[in-house]
Amino acid sequence: MEPLAAGLKGVPFPQPRKARAGCPHDSRRDASATRGMLESYFEARVRILFIGDIFGRPGRIIVKEKLPSLVETYSVDLVIANGENSAAGFGITPPLAEELFELGIDVITTGNHIWDKREIIDFFQMADGNAHSPSRRLLRPANFAADLPGRGVYEGCKGKVPYGVINLQGRVFMASNDDPFRVADQLINGLQAKVILVDMHAEATSEKISLGWYLDGRVTAVVGTHTHVPTADERVLPNGTAYITDVGMTGPYDGVIGVKKELVVGKFLNNMPVRFEPASGDVRLCAVVIECDETTGRARSIERVMV
Fold this sequence. Notes:
Distance between the termini: 29 Å
Strand content: 15-25%
Oligomer: single chain
CATH architecture: 4-Layer Sandwich
Helix content: 25-40%
């Protein structure tokens, strides 16, 4: 049993029963029972791949190259990605959203750069009552003003498993928006799905960690985005919510959070206006793989991935 258990962090597997005193030990019966329990265990599991902020063309290219093998290697059922920087590092356009969906991404979350490309407003309005159209599977933070285009929550079904995705944005060191904690309460209460992932797009680590504790046991995962630097604090909280402060960026690491380093360094030195451009070297894909129970939505494990 140990080789199987080694691949899933901290997940207890059912073990064969020991023979009681005075009772014959039927190893075939015990092996059959254990096999049945294992089959039930794996049938009830869902694996989610969440890809950190896709930055510009380098980020899109590496997703195209690596996503199929990641899905196969980790037996992924559901793919979610933050795509707010996919258009040269600033915003997302309708063609780029369609391109990412065609690669196999089920839902795209965003953040504070969602309005950088104005044409995305028309894309949001193309939903036209279709609850599962591409324009509904592209989210903007749910705690933006309610009358803005787009929505911040999506509920769908992958195979026979219902799931929900909630996109929120922090308020510390960022624009003033509605309270993400209370908005999360409202949205969770309105979802039927048990498997729920929350993308918390925020600057302050304390705000992200606080939301993780606040939602522990009520959602499958709270994953942080926005700062583009992967953190090493992935864990499953006591009540079954997988958490990480920042998944990291999918894009060029030979720069400053995706931008050519000489431009950003120069900005710090002289404080003069400068047009930021995406870097190009050392391109990596950062993500997490979350395994959960489809019937309860509780996470079993979370693993960082960088390729």
